[in-house]
Each structure stands twice: as C-alpha cells, then as structure tokens.
Amino acid sequence: MWKKEPFGKLSSGKECSLYTADTGTGVRISITDYGISLVSFIFTGSDSERDVLLGFDDVTGYENHDFYSGCIVGRVTSRTANGKFEIDGKEYQLSLNNNNDTHLHGGFIGLSKVVWDCEIVGDTLQFSHTQPDGTDGYPGNLEVLVTVSIKTKSPGGRITGTFLALDMRATCDQSTPINLTFHPYFNMDGQESGSALDNKLTVFDYDGYLPMDPDTILPTGDIVPTRGTPFNLDISRVGDLIVDVPGGYDHSFFLCSKSGFLVPAAEIASKDERYRIRILTDQPGIHVYSGNYLDGTKGKGGAVYEKHAGIALEAQNFPNAVNVPSFPSCILREGEEYRRNITFSFCF
User: Fold this and answer.
1) What is the tens place of the pLDDT at every residue in 291-308?
2) Per annotation, catalytic residue among 183, 251, 287, 308
3) Is residue 183 annotated as a catalytic residue, yes or no?
4) Annotated catalytic residue: which of 105, 129, 251, 314?
5) Would you give the distance in Å from CA 113 to the centre of its chain?
C-alpha cells in the first residue's frame, strides 16, 4: 500500500523519504520520516483533486520553517510555563525556545526536528525514535513508536469509510512528562485557496474550554462553559466567531472522553461542506489554533500561507498540565507505557 520515494536532503546532507498511500477510496495520503510530518491529504475526486493540508514540496521547507506543519510534537506539546516543572521534589529546567521565557512544543529539537526510523510492515508504517536523556532538558531516555495505518472501518467497526489511525506509544527509563500530538494545518477549501476562515468547525462532546492568559498564552487553570461564547463551535464558520476572540483561536477544549476510549473530538469542513475530516481521539482535550502567526511562508506549489491560512487541530493533554494539579496528569513513570491514539476520518 505504501510507496517510498526521496523527499530531499537536510542541510546536514541526510536524506529523507516520503511515504504515499492511495487508499482506493478517494483519498491519497503522504507522510515524511522527518518529524513524521503529515505532508498531504488529497481528496481524489473524478473531476479534480484537492489537497487540504498546508505543507511543503520537499523536506527543506519542513527544516527551515518552525510552524510545526503536520509534524508530531513532543516530548511535551504546547507551552510549559518558564520551562520549569518538578517531579518528586526535583526541579527541571527545559530549553526556552519561545520568547526566551517559555518552552514550546518540545524545545529546539523535540521530536519534530529529527528523522525517524521507518519500516513498512504490511499495510502499516512503523516510525521509531529514541530521544536521549537530557534532550531539551527532559529526564530519561524516551523510546517512542508511532504506528500509522489506514483502515476501512471506524474504531469499534460500526462505520465503513476511510480512516487514518496514528497510534502513539512510549516508555522511559526515568519519570518524565509526556504529551504527544500531531499538528496538521487544515484548509478544507484547498491548501492553496488562501484564508481558512470560511471553513466550518465543530468541537464535539466538550465540557468547556480553557481560557488563556493573553500575556503568556497559558491556561489560567479554569474550565469555562462554551454556551453563549465564540467558543461554542457547532458547524460554525470560523470567520464569523473569530472576530470576538482577541488574537484568534489558540485554546484547548475539554473533551468528555475517558482514557482508552476513542470519541469524536472535532470536525472541519469546506465552506460548501462537501469535504470533511473528523478527528477521533482518546486524548483529554483538543487544541484549536487558527494560524495566527502564519506570515506569508511559501508552501506546496507556491501557495502563500498568510495569517489564518490553516486551522490546526491538535488532540492532546492540556497545555502546562505538568504545573497545574487540577489538569490530567502527564507524568510517565518508569515501567509504564504511554499510549494515545489520533484517528482522522475522511468524509466526502
């Protein structure tokens, strides 16, 4: 199912690869071993093709730009206040790669800026990487395995369709925080179409959203009901509500999911609702980021990604969870296994 081809070289001279699968059901998917970046989701209709992921034509773009296009993010995604946390009374200092006062998306190296080992096993891709103890300040040697598979049945087997499942597992030889996600930017009207504000967005089964401190862009620790606010996203045109969100969306939503159970988290649709992608996950939250800092970067086929050119949907634990006792724990202990799943359902 998966076809491997060259995807260019990094500045170090290391070669990277692109893995592409045609599902046979109207979707073609491409992924690179650099940061396990999701490069393209292409709807292959009889009349035209539509690529709905922002990205780049080769690995050079992924290396040179830092808006985390499509990649796995970790060891801890989102922001960690002052890059500090404690485990069992010991304080750790992480790298400060965001405004020199915050740790963001795993740091300067993280898991997104490395080439992963990849093996094609049957119809799956198996990506593996060991992040050494001390990388960006994190304790312990973290072993990560991500299995990518295309399925024709929904989790539970009740619905037939096209599903891309990302199964993330990790172990560590020391206690460490961990919060992995993927960071795809969607524009369901086509990655080259300009603003994604015409996209329609739904967040499912949520107990509320996490207000952010406007100065630190960190959660205040509160969980607030969405009813009557611009965070009540229900088949909503993003552009209609974002005008009431200063700075744009960069907020997490509290899902009603229970650990180990996949539930619908969000769905994003083209303006005519013909093309839709639904995200299912067993993560406690989903983060919505409206591309507020996209700055005119040139992407695939010469597309220009200005502010709000894509909407990132990141299924994850809550930002800064390691420092907020009321949030779900993100500590992985030695001898335990971290396991989370993100699944994309393609509808058209």
Assistant:
1) 999 999 999 999 999 999
2) 183
3) yes
4) 314
5) 14
